[in-house]
Amino acid sequence: MYKLKTIPEDFIVEEITKAKPEDTGQYALYKLTKRDLTTIDATKKISQHYKTPIKYINFAGTKDKIAITTQYITISKGAKKDYKTKNLILNYLGQTNNRLNLGELLGNKFTITVRNIEQPPKLAKQIPNYFDDQRFGNNKNNHIIGKHLVKKDFRSACELIEQTQHHLIDKPADYVGALRTLPKQNLKMYVHAYQSYLFNETVKKLITKHKTAKYALGELYFPTTKIDNQTIELIGFESENKLLEDEGITPRDFIFAQLPQLTSPGTTRELLITIKDLTIGQLQPDEFSKNKKCTVKFTLNKGSYATIVIKALMLQ
Q1: What is the mean pLDDT of residues 233-237?
Q2: What's the predicted TM-score (pTM) here?
Q3: Total Cβ atoms within 10 A of residue 21
Q4: What residues act catalytically?
Q5: Residue 260 domain flag
Q6: Which domain holds residue 214?
């Protein structure tokens, strides 16, 4: 079985941004390079160093921990200087009038080393635009929490979220209050994970002839015959999708009166991944196994998962 991320150097990610430094502006713009560190942990370090509340630090997307990644962040009234630690380099680029928000990136460029292989990856013409394991959390239950939230079963959601338990010690039945103690982005992550699960299941139903690959929640289907690209719903309160009936929910369930920040109208996502500049290197000795390794390079639009591309290339 092939291996990814044996060392951080095996997974190199470069964010492609539309942010540009200017001479003036409310926000300081930086390039953040990190190694073996999550984006959230990196921003915590930056917050502590500059003595800036973490809510004033914004980025366009989270990046993998076991990797070397480059991305961009803005800090409201941030310091006009660099910062460097053992696994983090922050370079000040200039000012901007526009802070970065989640999703405000063009894409990512990847350089990935695939290890413990005997044959090189092979070109794949069509790759479904699945959400991969990272979307569902270390415990692989983010989508379950999300479904509890959508169904307004806040008690069951809290039972799966350890961070809510401190609040519930003093107020045992205040489940909404416990959820409100969590950062807004953390709460939205659970609903997004459930929407992602529904998207993956919808895509699988469209692929009749396929090969399968394992992922956190079971299997993903990769087509063995040509399929046409189309736009698929990420289900929200404006959606119409039979899968909702199977799940026992309605589109209106994605409206949250008690937690309005979670309300989601839904959006759309392409069925197939668009891969640019794909190159597959030659087999080389693998210093961590008796087999070989290979370097794969490509660029993806925002929101697409490099690990899904590798799954597809290794299935051929």
Answers
A1: 78
A2: 0.91
A3: 15
A4: 64
A5: yes
A6: 128-272
